[in-house]
Structures are given as structure tokens and as C-alpha cells.
Amino acid sequence: MSNYYGKFYGYTGLFPILDNNESHNHLTELRSLLSTLPDSEGSLFSRSGLVHGARFFILDDVVYNGHPTPEEHLKNAYLVLSMTFDGELEQLAQRISALGESDWDKVMAHCHSVSDTKRPHEVVLEQLRKGQVTTSFLYVDADKNLESTLKSLLLQRKVADLIANAQGASTIERKTLVKELAEQIKQCEIPTPGGFISN
Amino acid sequence: MSNIRGKAYAMNVITPQKRWKSIILNAAFKLLTIRFTQKDLRDLSFIHFARWTIIPANGFPKFSGQKNIDRTRFDYLLFESNFNGSWNEYVDAFNAALAFKLNLVWYWSENFPGSRPLSPFKAYIEHNQKYNDYYYMAYPGSTVSDVKNAISVAEEFDILARHVDKSDEDFDDAYLRFLGNLQNKIGSNGGPGPQMS
Amino acid sequence: MRDHELDLADIQGNILRAYAFPHARFFQVSLKSAESACAFMSKLLPLITTAEVWPDEKPESTLNIALGASALSLFALPQGTLSSFPDEFMEGMAKRAKSLGDTGESDPENWDNEWNQDVDALVTIYGREPAHRESVSAQLNEIAQECGVQIIAYQDANKLTIDGAFSSKEHFGFTDGIAQPEFKHSHSRHTPGDGKLGKHGGWEFLETGDFLIGYANEAQEIEKYPDPILFSKNGTFLVYRKLEQDVAGFRRYVKEQAANYPGGEEKLGAKLVGRWADGTPVALSPDKPDSGISGSAEKINDFRYGDDPEGLKCPLGAHVRRANPRDSLGFKDNLTARRRIIRRGISFGDYLRNDESNVNEERGLIFIVLNANISRQFEFIQQQWMNYGNDFRMGDESDPIVGNHGSSQRYLIPGDTNKGEEPYVCTDMNSFVKLRGGAYFFVPSITALRLLATNTVDVR
Q: Do C303 and C340 form a contact (C-beta atoms < 8 A)?
């Protein structure tokens, strides 16, 4: 019964969606919002700096599988959030809060929330905790945190170039190439998570 | 609004399960958390993560202000996975390589037809799958293998870089070792990958 | 367990066993109307070559027919039957170009004219001599005229003649067609390595259902088939691709790269393909071809890759290792056994002379695949193993020989660094193969042809 796998945290949460009223059809509006929410570099989860993968899906009801299982229905529709990230839930909540007014608020505006009398960063944490369901089995095939992973991917590209360029070169030339790349890597920025990289 | 982001596919499957069967499933999960029994999942090498969560019948999160609370008859088993390749490939590979272990997990779900043969299994997954409204992936152009390779590359390069100020002979040896360890790990990646059909 | 014999008279020829005739002609036929289509089927039926075993002497020629999705719509088939054909077949190969990597020069908008339209029927003729091919062609033309169907175009193909004699090589100079799936009830000669890995070492037969519709397959079921089973059983699907080969470009590339490659030209070529020119698998003989192996049907295909995880003998991305990874992907060959394909390709055009005086002539391979499930078999191989490299841990890299490299690509030949051997990186590799056209076809059983001819496929 663990949300952890090594240094990774697997979070799953269900947030009941607000009932419709005269002015809002929350389910439809939430669907519409999610369909256009930015999902690449600079998006909510990208800016958190900790999230490897995240998804939102709407559990509008459970599925009927037919006889002999009796039919049943949920009274609430739920927004399900699932994330895999580095570290602890508190850290992630802090990062999201620190973004200020963000897509997080827009999404959660359609769901039941915890009361907001606490300090801002605790609101996000409380919301995440209240909606959380405990993972029974988590498996992650990864080793390093997000920052290391992104840096390694960048280095991998450059090492491939180095090996091709250093083919047939002398030892001195190779030493120079390696030295140059090591310097370059020390100084270069961590790539922004969430995007594709073209060669 | 897709299950696919670059080379990654996000799958969600939710199935009803009798409450007493959850006890058995939890015991099965304890078995699976022993690392050596996870070797199969690792050997499949295209599964980024797999997560099973049992939502107990009385366990749907409750917020104040809700008019109705859900107390269901069944527990619900939520399966979430992130993998590389197409849906068809993934389910096919599960069926080809992990049928027994999948049975251990899904046998307890209502109406589960068994993980073999393939077609009823596929139909069951499809029927109970929930599509994503939103999917974010931090490195969408890189697969599980690409990432593993990249991490090896970073480690090996680190070692090599420490030899630049050593003798030519030492550096040559280190460079050869570096090549030997990395020659199959520098496949280019980062783009959106093949379009699945 | 009773071994069911197949009804060979109901199955078209060239599926269970290759004809291996050296001369072929592929006709593209437009069926025009339901009436002319039915008449055509009726007239052709008695001429169709089946899978029945030939008595002592081979016939002079063979004739077979396969139907495109557009033909099925022409016959008055029930909607239920049409809807039960697989999506990829109904959509057609041209529409699926992106997912097949048929882009750039291989994009359908650049295909030969005759492939830029729906092809109702593909009629295939093989002849032992060119004269035999001509005589059956004449017969076909007559029947076509009588029935009111139109032959739009035809393509000739011939086993390559090199130095005045027939050769099993394809245009790049490599022996082709060695590994073919050996499945239960296939009639090919028993060759170790053609089947799947045996439970106790050795090799076993693959399941019939991945090559003929209506039989148990490797996933241990009879897969969904076009409705009704009477119509689809004993049929299969055919993939036709006219692949133009840039032989001059390939020869030039190998020569250039070999200038810096310690192993030399021949070895470089072998490391790209995974076999030496004579067919010796690099996995068995990494340093030189071995006629003791290539000359023996028992040995030439009897190998695995389990003892070569780093590709020191056969590079992980070499062509034959990609096309049939055997035990390379783990779980024995459970992940690869269901992705085998029958290949019945034959070359077109003349072999490029050493002085390249005939370089501007068209040459290449009419690549033909037979499989029961186009998307799980041919398309999967093309998409995941030819134009992509993740299963081999090689990222986005594509097959060196047939991959669509687009802009320049690299190919790394691993070196045995324990012996001081560095890997060799081939750089700036362009594509050597261009797709000129093709399509997906359904190969009906004789029963199905009869049902079509008499227009008696029932609604369920």
C-alpha cells in the first residue's frame, strides 16, 4: 500500500465535480477547459519542475459490464488526477502554490474544494490530500529525478555527435573535444520539461 | 485531449471488484512488490509506470458541501499506466509475456474473461478504459529505453571527463571503455516518434 | 491429436509454398461493374492455381488473383461483410502512408501513375519461361475483353540474371528470401530457423492462423475474420510494394564508408544487412562468409541472437535482425513469433553493370508480403522495426537498407572494445529505397471466388 517507488511518488486523486446550477454546467465546462489546457513547455506541470507525467480524466460514471454483475452508478462525477513526480507531496504542493494564479485554480474551480482559510500553499496541499486515494501497487521504470533526466537526454545527443566527430581523431583532438563538451554541459541550462527536441 | 503525447500513451482502466476479493488482491500486490517478481515488467522495457489503486466502496473522497456521497456496492480497481508504443502493441505484449501475472491482478474484477486468449482480453480493457482529458509528459520525445540509455551516457561521460588531464595512454583506455559501454546507447531521440496506426 | 489436413484445393497457390518461378507479371485490373466482375471471376476460376501438390512435373505457368477494397465494394456484398474487413485493408496503404514512413520521395503523391488510383484486382502470373508468361497473359487479355474488365497496367519482374545466370540475389547484391516462416501445414522444406524457438532448444512450427484466415494463431485464438467465415477462411492478405533501389547510391556509399572501416567493403555491407552477400548470417560468422553455412539449408538460417546482446556479431539495427528479431526482445520469442511474414518478392529491372552504363534504368524489388493480419504483422514491422528503433534501444533510428532516412542518418557498427576494437559510425546515410507504389489486397479462397462469381454471400 505505497505511494512511493524509490524516490518517486505516485499520486492519484479523485475530486468530486460541482453539481450543475443555473449559471454553470461544471462538467461540460471542465471538459472544455481541459481540452485546451496547455500541455507542453511552460504549462502547469512543466513549471513545477518535479513532475514526470500527469493526466486528468473525468470519471463521469463507472462502467456496466453486464450480467451477472448488477448495474450501479456514481452519484458524483469525479475529476481524476494522476501524477508521477520527484520527492514528497508537500514539495509539489508548494511549487504549485508558488505559481500563483494558474491553471490549477481554473481546473479546481469546477470541483468541490477544501475551505480556503489556511495559507495559500496549504490550500493546494489540503486539496491534494483530501482527494487522494492510496496506491496499492506502483511500478516505475526510471532512476533519476526530472532535472537529471532532462540533462542526461541533452548530453546523450551531444555525446552521439562527439563520438561521430572523434572517429579517427588523435588522442589530443579527442581530449579537446571531451573537455569542450564537459564545459558546455556545466554551463548549459536545464531544458524546459514538456517539449520535443528536434535535432 | 488525447491519450498520446509524443511517444507515450496514458491508459486508465477502472473495473468493479467485490469487496472481499480486494483482500486477496492486496495480498497479491504484496507479492508483486518484491523486486524480483517485477523483473518481467522491467524486461518489457517500454512501460514507464504501472499503478493499481483500489478505491474502496466507502473510499471515494468526500468534501464538505457535497450533496450526495458515493457509497458503492463494489470496490473499484483503477489501473493507470504510461507506456511507449500503441495500445494494440501494449495489450498484445502483456498477453504474450505476462498473461499469468495479469490474471493474478484482474482475476478478481467482475466479468474479467482472463488474459488469454487475446481478443476477449482486449475487448474487456477497451470496454473499461477511460480516456484522458489532458495528458502531460515531461520528455515526450524519449522512451523508457531512451532515458535509460541517456542516464548511462551521462554517467559514463562523467567518468571519461575525469581522464582528460591524465596521460594519453590512460585517456585512450578510458575512451575505449566509454565507447564499449555506450555504443548501443546513443540512438537519437526527442522527436514525436512514429505515427501509430 | 488428429492433424487436420488443409483443403489444399481451396487455397490459392504461392502461400503455403513458393512457386519460385523466375518470370512474373502483375496485372492491375479495373473490374468496371458488378456484372463484369462476376463474369471475370467465373471465367478465371478454372485457371486459378491452387495449393494442391503438383504431380511430378511443374506446370508451365501459374495464375492467381487478389482483390482490393474497391473491388469488394463493387460486388454486391452485404454491408456486414464489408464492415468486418480490417480497417487497414479498407483504408488502403496510400492513406496510411504517414504511419508506414512512406513520406518524402516515397509519399503517395510521388508514386507511379498506375498506383495513384484504386486497384480493384491484382492478377499475378508466373512462368517458367518468358514464353509461358506471354501465353497466359494473352489468355488473360482475352478473358478481360470478353468480360468487359480493363487491364490498366502491368509490371514485369524476373529473377535476377547476374553474369548470364539466374541468381537468388536482389539488386544490392545480397541473397534474398532465405528466412520464411515455417508454420503448421505449410509445405515448405523443413529448414531450421524458419519456425519459432522450441521449448527445449531447436525450432517448432508457427501457428497457421497468422498466415491463413480461420485457424488458430500465436495468440491462441482464431482471430476476428471478415464475415462470414465461409467467405474468409483459407484466404489471406497480400501487401504489394514496388520498391525502387538506388543501387549506384548504395554501392557508392559502402565504398566511401569502407575507406575508413577496417573490415573493408564486403564486411561493411554484411554489417548493414546482417548477412554476407552469399547469405551467411553474420550472427554465425561475423568475420567472413562461410560457404559451409551458406551452402547448407540446414545451417543458413539456424541461429539466434541470445548470445549477442550487444550486437558485436550482428549489429542490433542490422536489416535482418530488425526484420526478424527472433529472441532479441526477451521472453524467448513470444514478442516476435506473432509478427512473422511470408515474403514472395521478385526483382524487376536489370542488374546494374559494373561500369554503370545502365544506371538510368528502373530496378528494384516487387516486395510482396502474405499475412493474416496486415496491421499486426506487416505494418508493425514497417512502423516499429524498419522506420523506428525503440525495440532495439536505438531511439528514432531506421533500418539502414530500407528505412526512410529522410535527412542524413547515422549507423553504428559496434566494436569489441575488449579486443581494442572501436565501433564504427557510418554517417550521412541517405535512403537507398524509394516506394513507387503499392496497395493492400485480399487473397480469396477458391470458395470465396465462387461466392463472388455467383453473387451468393449471405447477409447474416
A: no
